[in-house]
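Escalation from tier 1.

The customer reports that the assembly of two entities below gives different C-alpha cells on two consecutive runs. Tier 1 could not reproduce it. I'm attaching the input and our single run for tier 2 to review.
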Amino acid sequence: MTPRWVVIALLLCSLPLQARIEALQFEDARQEQRYRNLIAELRCLVCQNQNLADSNAELAQDLRQQTYEMIRKGASDDEIVDYMVKRYGDFVLYRPPVKTNTALLWIGPFVLLGAGLVTLIVFARRRGRAAAATLDDAERERVRRLLDDEKESVS
Amino acid sequence: MAGKTRFLLPVGVFAVIVVFLGIGLTLDPRKVPSPLVDKPAPGFTLPRLDDPAVTMSPAELQGKVWLLNVWASWCVSCRAEHEVLKQLAARDLVPIIGLNYKDQSDAARQWLRQLGDPYAASVVDAEGRTGIDWGVYGVPETFVIDRRGVIRYKHIGPVSGADLDEKIIPIIRRLVEEKA
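Tier 1 run:
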C-alpha cells in the first residue's frame, strides 16, 4: 500500500506538467508579451481562419517556434513580420498593409456605408414628398370633417 | 418612373452579388499566391535521402531549368501525384529534385522503392526549416526554377496530368529556350 503522502507528492509534481503544452522560456515579461502579440497577429496558412496562436496545425507550430527563436535572438517585431511576409506574402497578416491590391479591402466597407447612407437619404426624402403629395384639397376637407365628427361624438 | 427604379434597384443589387459570388466560386482560398515567384530560389544545404553523408544545394543546379517537388510519405495526395511525376521524369526534360518534408527517412526510402523514384535526387528537410524558407504550407508543392536560379512558377497541391500538359511542361519548354 503506497503511503498517502507519496500519492499527494506525485500529484503535486504533475501540476506544472499539465499547465501548458509548449513551455517557452522568455527573458522577461515584455518579450513574452511580444511573442503573444505576434502569434495573435500572424495568420495560419493551413487553417486559414485561425491565427498562429489558436492553430494546432503543424505549420503553425513550426512558425510559432520560428517566432520564438527569432525573439530570443533579438529580432525586432518588424523583422519577424518581414520574415513571414517574404515567405508567405501579405496573406499571413491579419492586418494587411494598404496597397493598390488591398485598396478594395480597406475602402470597400466605407464605400458600402456611403452607398447605404445615400440610399437611405434618397428613400427618406422620396417617401416624405410622396406622403405630402397624396392628399388633394377635397381629401383634406374630408379628413377635417371626419375628425370633427370624432370630436363631437366624444364630447 | 418611381415604380421602375424600385424594381431595378433590388435586381441590380442582386446582379452585383451574383457576380461577386460567382467570381468567389472560381477561386480556391487554399491557393495563396507566393511572394517568391520571380524571386531567387532560397538556398539550402541538405543531406541527400539516398546518402545522408552527401549534401546538396541549389547552387549545383545553376544554369539548368529544374523542378523542386515537396513531398512526404505521410502525404496522401503525393501518392496520386507520384504517377504524374514519373511520367514527367520519363520524358527527361528537366531534373526533378525532391524535398522530403518533415518525413521519416526510412519511410521515405521505402516509399520510393515501392512506388518508383522520379527524382534526380531527394534531400531531407526533417524539421521543415527549408520548407518555411520556400513558403511551403501544403504538401505537395512544386516549384519551377529557371537557369538563373529564379523561381518562375509555383504549383500548390498535387500536379495532375492536365496541370502537367497545360501548365508545367509549356513553362519548362519556354524556360529551357531562355538563355542563362
